Request: fold
Amino acid sequence: MNIKKYLRPLNIDEAYGLLQSKNAVIIGGGAFLNLGNREVETAIDLSKLNLNFIEEKNGEFLIGAMTTLRKLETSSFAKENFDGVITKTLSCIMGVQLRNTATIGGSVYGRYGFSDIITTFLALDAEVELCNGGKMSLEKFLEEKIDRDILLKISIKKDNRKAAYINMRNSSADFSLINVAVAMKDNRFRICVGARPKRAKVAYEAMSFINSSEVNEETALRAGEIASTTLQFGGDIRASAEYRKELCKALVKRAIMEVIQ
Amino acid sequence: MKINLKINNINRDIDVEPGEVLYDVLRRCGFTSIKKACGTSSCGVCTVLLDGMPVPSCSYLAVKADGHNITTIEGIKEEADRIGKFMVEEGAVQCGFCSPGFLLTVIAMEREIENPDSQGIKNYLAGNLCRCSGYEGQLRAVKKYMGVSE
Reply:
């Protein structure tokens, strides 16, 4: 990445103003700086905006956008809530070096199809708070065309839901070729499938089926089959659409069974 | 841009380009133990410690490191030697290109995790790729160094 100017604004308004200028980008952790050859006029570093935090407030867990993946992964919050699914999800991502660099904000705002943590946050019904766009569900954020805004924090309700995360990779240091997160609250399941290879989606038809069925291996597999036929899958360098569809059935089943254990 | 880095406990004021990564700056300053392979944060070869935490210097902007402590192998020769002896004894080194990043990650793990088990060691070192050794020798060496018997 070729950067002409590097600025560290001291407040959110200043950062948002800078972002509106031509060819300005937010630098999160910068972990994927070298994946492109982009020319950047102004790189905006958010490290002076106090967005590096994990806290609990009014029944919600709040995660600041500049929190690194590793800080979140090793936090007592991630280990002790939602069956440790956030720690489990993050620990799958490449090495500690990258996780010490990449930020939650960069991972979520990038809305990458291959993202692991987006799938898990989606299952946990997380919300995002944007500088200009305000608070909205992560699901809505993933579908909206939002540009030139700043992600401030992620919030997750402290509702003690149970959760599981499973992924398939060609090698441990590669991106997921498919990933699945399932959460359960009050015996209602929320099933999310990511790396399809497009952005993670909620599998509503599969949820509708499993939420009206007695949960066992057979119905869990049927939910997987429904997810694989109702969601769209594509092919890329990592896997074909057909392979992803087959994996989706098994991974959804396994994640549901893990949640009810 | 002028930044200040405390490299191996010595403060340095350094002029850097806004888009320059830590790897290039440290090499320019003479810290040639640092190597680069993938250039995409994937292989761990370029690892340095930033405030004690392993980071990929190939993708870490030097300006982001302003005001922080950087550790390279040159700064922890004695610790590196201690681990290096176990690696030699276990046949864990062939070309040695990945060794500086690997040793720094082991040192970070030792400081961060109390009594890791075999799986904990594997998990922590998963971001350090080695194309020669097949990892078994490295794992044996680190387990012996850390006193992990299983």
